[in-house]
Amino acid sequence: MSALPAKAPVRTRPSAPPRKPPAPGRKRSTVPARERTNPSPRAPGRPVSPSTSRTKRPRKAQLRVVKPARRPRRSRAPLLILSGMMIAGLLVGIVTLQALVSQTSFRMQDLQARTHTLQLQYGQLKAQTASLSAPARIAAAARRQGMVLPDASQVQTLRVPGLTPAASKSARAVVPPSAALKPVIGEGT
Question: What is the pTM (predicted TM-score) of this model?
Fold first, then answer.
């Protein structure tokens, strides 16, 4: 057995017999075949039998306009489903984003109100600190507790070896520990 399939015989259409040139003594018609009223070669008064006319003359094929082959129409359902899903996803995303923006806006308003309240409290505490640290108030509180200023004879100045009088002046100018907190709480030095 061979691996190749047997070839089927190819059928071809029988071709029309070739036309014979007109006989030399016969006159050829100058009227085109389309315009002739009597295209058959029979005599004008002779009846035509249906059997002889079919056998003698091959029937001409009728010409017709051939329409282009229709492409198979694709279903639009997958496109519509995909479009719907994309639009729904975009809408959900927009609504979610809008909710997040409004939540952030409410939180910012709350934080701004809280900041304003804290700034007012800070101002009040600053004014209270200034009034409590006033030298006149401190002197009055000391007198109430029975404290008095010492005499000049009772004041003693200590000298530390290795320091010059100019250095001792700069040592007095050292910033107190409470002033070191000012940059932390927001005040300048």
Answer: 0.36
